[in-house]
Amino acid sequence: MMLGIVLVVFLLLQITPGDPVRQIVGLRATQEQLEEVRAEMGLDDHVLVQYGRYVGQLAQGDLGYSYKSKKPVTSMIADRMVVTAWLLTAGVLMTLLISIPAAIAAALYRGKAADQVIRGAGLLGLSMPAFWVGVMLLLLVALPTGWFPPGGFGETFGEHVRSIFLPALTLAIGSSPFIIRSLRASTISVLNSDYVATGRSIGGSRSRLVRRFVLRNAAVSSVTVLALEIGFLLFGAVVIETTFALPGLGQGLVLAARGRDLPAIQGYTLLFAVIVVAVYLLSDIAQAMLDPRVEIES
């Protein structure tokens, strides 16, 4: 899968309109200067030669150098990785904190007022664009109260937490409805199963049954949905980091795209792909751990 992603990323950027050399040397450069720089960078070689050279560099952990800053792309990614890791971790935790209680409540009170309110709130969350939610949180929460900074990441741990809260909440508002819907349906199915009915008949309390049996079995199918949502959260970080001026990978990708910095674009895109593939792999392992019917072959 990763080999296919490398090929697609390389080819897509090859056919992207515009001349990266022109971005480097400037608009007033002569044709001779353009050809000289293009030869130095190896951009006048055949596309297969460029692809082979690119794959060879990747095998050595070399993502190339930025056309703009002249810095190694790996160091640029390392500088921004911490912010995005904070955002994704906080976004996933906040999504779970919202989704699990809401889904269980909706399943336990199916068809009642609580269920209707939770499902309605989920529909509302789906209908609001992430950038709009972020702007509303800035205007209605950050600026009036002063509890959270409107941008940046801060320097200390406390400043990091305050800076990341609203962006993570923005991500959670958009992703929670999918988890709630999936987990609610799974929980209702488990609650209607025979072993739960048997547990009730021998005097097991509903809260104990939910903790020990219902939630674990219902979570099996929702793990895949969560993995998909983490992938969406990663690319949603591009919008959120721009909205909240967070110096993360998403903002770096936007800046690289604006400047047509091809090595940086390739580096950020490949890193996103690696994270998504790793998350999907971990979700398969988590499913095997939760569901005894699934075995992990050595």
Description of the molecule:
- This protein is mostly helical and 298 residues long.
- It has two domains: 58 residues, no CATH class; 210 residues, Orthogonal Bundle (MetI-like fold), CATH 1.10.3720.
- Helices cover 77% and strands 0% of the residues.
- It contains twelve helices and no strands.
- The chain is elongated and about 85 Å long.
The average pLDDT value, as a whole number, equals 78
How many structural units, i.e. domains?
2
Task: Quickly give the structural class.
Answer: mainly alpha
> What is the H-and-E element order?
HHHHHHHHHHHH
Considering the protein shown, what is the CATH homologous superfamily of the largest domain?
Answer: MetI-like
Head-to-tail CA distance between termini: 20 Å
Main sheet overview? none
Helical proportion? over 70%
- Per DSSP, the total helix count is 12
Note poorly predicted spans.
Answer: none
- CATH T-level fold name of the largest domain: MetI-like fold
What CATH architecture of the largest domain would you give?
Orthogonal Bundle
Number of strands: 0
Radius of gyration: 24 Å
Q: Beta-strand percentage?
A: under 5%
CATH class categorisation of the largest domain? Mainly Alpha
Short key terms for the protein model shown above:
mainly alpha, MetI-like fold, 2 domains, 298 residues, elongated, 77% helix
